[in-house]
Amino acid sequence: MKRITLFFIGLLLFLVQPFVHSEVTLPHIIGSNMVLQRDMQAPIWGWASPSEKVTITLSTEAEGVEPISTTTAVADADGNWQTKLPAMAAGGPYTLQIKGSNTIELTNVLFGEVWVCSGQSNMQWSVNASKDNEAEIAAAMYPKIRLFYIPRVPSGLPQQDVDADWYETSPETIPQFSAVAYYFGRKLYKNLDVPIGLINTSWGGTRIEPWTPPVGLASVPAIASVNKEVEDIQANYQAQLPEKMKAIEDWIAETRKALETNAQLRQMPDNTHPLAHQGRPTALYNGMVHPIVPYAIRGALWYQGESNLRDGMLYHEKMKALINGWREVWGQGEFPFYFVQLAPFNYGGRNASPFFLPQIWEAQTATLALPNTGMAVTTDIGNLRDIHPRNKQDVGRRLALWALAKDYGRDDVTYSGPLYKSMTVEGNTIRLTFDHVGSGLTSRDDEPLTWFQIAGEDKEFVEANATIDGDTLVVSSDAIANPVAVRFGWHQSAEPNFMNKEGLPASPFRTDAW
C-alpha cells in the first residue's frame, strides 16, 4: 500500500510542478525499427532542457561513410524542440543519432510508406482472429513491414507520448496486430517493393466523436453541439483546477506526515478529467492520435461506424469533422483518407430498424465528395450473424487498390466497384448509370441481379428486375407502370450480387430522398 501511495505522490508532484527535462528524450513513435515517410521532410521532435542545443545526424549503417544529413534544433523555454530530416528515397537501414547532454542512437531505420490505421473493432480485429489465421501468421516474414501498435488509453487532454515500439513483421509480432492494416500493408509492399510502416490506433466499440480533434469538431456546423460540449467541459475543468490543486497539495502534505508517523491514510482527491473516457468526444484523439502528430505519413485508413449506427446522414458530417481535423493537425494538406463501408449484419435490439445500416452506407458514400477520399465496399464479404467478418484479407486488399491507383500511379488498377451516378425514366423502366464500371458490369454468381426495388409516386417499393445493358442497368417491375425511384441493397441483410467484372461490388444506394 505504501509503495502505491508513494507512486501517486510522485505522479502528483510531477503534475503540479514545472516539467523540466534533464536529458534529451524522444516520443516512442520516433524509435529504432521505425519507417519514416519517403519523399517528404520527416519531422523529428522531442524534449530537452530549455535552450539546449540538439544535433540530429542521419547516417547509413555502413562504417566509414559520411553522414547523410546533420540538423540542429534548440529547445524552447518549455523544453520542446523539433526539426525535419530532408526528403529521402525509399531505403535503409539507417542510423539516427540525437545528441544533446546525452546521446540517443536509433538503428534499423527505413524510409518508405507510412499509414495510420484507425477505427473500432473491425480495424482492431487481429490477424490471429482473421480467416486462415495459422497460415497467415506462419507466412508473416516481412522485416521491411514495420508495426506500431498504440495502447488503448483515453485522455481528457492532449498527450505527448504513447507506450509503444516499432517491430518488424514476423510470426511472433503479427498475431495481435490489426488484420486490415496488415493485409493492406502487405499488398502495398508486394506491389511497390518499398518499406511499409503501419500505425495501428484502434479501439473496439468506440464512436467516431472520441477520435475527432477539437479543430475538426469546430469545422462542421452540423455538429456544433458536440463542439460546444467539449469547449464547456474544458472551460469548467480549467476553472476548477485551482481548487482541485489546493486540495491535492493539502493531501500531499497530509500524506507525507501520515507516512512518517504511520497514521491512517486518506483517499487521494479525485481529479479525473470528465472527457477521459473512450466514449467521450476527443478522448481517443487526445490519448491515441495526438501523441504521434506530426509524424510524417502518406495517409490514413478508417474502419468504423457500427457504434454510430443510428446517426444516418449525420454520420457524414461527423466523417467530415474527423477528416478535416486530422488533416488540420497533421499539417500535410489533404492527405489520402480511405475508409471501409460497413458490412451487412442483422442488427437486433430494441427499436432496431433494418434501414439504419443503409443510411450509414449512404452517409459513407456521401463522404466520397471530400477530396482525396476512397471507400472499400464489403457487401459480399460480410457475415450476417457476426459483426466481425473474418475475411479481412479482401478488406485490406480493396483499400490498397485505392492507394495503388490514387497515390502510387497504377493506371491499370480498378479500385472501386460501381457507384450510382444518375437515373433516367424511360417509359415503365428506369435506366441507371454508374461510375467505376471497370471493364463491364456483371453478376457475381451469374444469377439475375438481386436486391433491386422500384417505386412509383406512391413511394411503395416492390421487388424489381434489373438487366445489364452495356454499362447501364435497366430496372422495372410489372407492378409499377410509372416508376420514379429505385433502391439497391436497401436493407441491413442485403448481400447483392451486382459488381463489375474486376470483382468489386456495387455500393448500396437509393435514387430518392424520401
Notes on the structure:
The protein is an alpha/beta fold and 514 residues long. Helix content is 25%, strand content 25%. It has helices at residues 2-16, 121-124, 133-138, 179-192, 214-217, 224-261, 283-288, 314-330, 356-366, 393-406, and strands at residues 35-37, 42-47, 53-60, 69-74, 80-85, 91-99, 103-119, 142-149, 166-169, 196-202, 299-303, 337-340, 373-376, 419-426, 429-435, 441-443, 452-455, 461-463, 465-469, 472-476, 485-488, 498-500, 509-510. Strands 1, 3, 4, 6, 7, 8, 9, 10, 11, 12 and 13 form an eleven-stranded mixed sheet that branches. Strands 14-15-20-19 form a four-stranded antiparallel sheet, with no helix packed on it. Strands 18-17-21-23 form a four-stranded antiparallel sheet. A hairpin with a 5-residue loop joins strand 17 (452-455) and strand 18 (461-463). The longest helix is centred in the middle third of the chain and has 38 residues, at 224-261. Residues 1-19 have low confidence and may be disordered.
